[in-house]
Amino acid sequence: MASLMENLIEVLGQESEEYEGLLALSQKKMRIIAGANLEDLQKITDDEQEVVSRLNRLEKRRIEVAADIANVLNKDVETMKLTNLIEMLSARPAEQAALAAVHDRLKSVVREVQRTNEQNRELLEEALELVNFEMNMLQAYKAAPETANYTRSAYNSGAQMGVDSGGFDAKQ
Length: 172
What we know:
It is a single chain. This protein has helices at residues 2-35, 38-73, 82-88, 93-142. The protein is an all-alpha fold.
């Protein structure tokens, strides 16, 4: 049982470290989103994917260790929570304290990652709204009202006010 607890504490500690790395990337991502640098945004997203991949491997390992602990304690792995396990370790104060510390650290960093990701989501939505606004402005520019100019045969010429019939001025 002692080695299983050490394995669980080790896995949770590694998960905490990975989440701290993810938090640092998320905070860096916030500055990149605000600066609208798409190349850096792509790079940081790739880095985040690598961290998430490592976290998934650690999570699988944590589930295996938790299942082993549940088998030893003759408990249902689905209903056994980390807080319950901490309470059960009252006879082993050193392991109890280590498990409680790593649990608190992990819980805190996950909460901070969630908060930062929510802020990043809001920043991305604002950036998307700005892009949509600019696109609408460009489309409105192209859809200027027609003039009241008529051709010789008394048909409307279809010319638009303030809009060149050509594209961009390549001479600039």
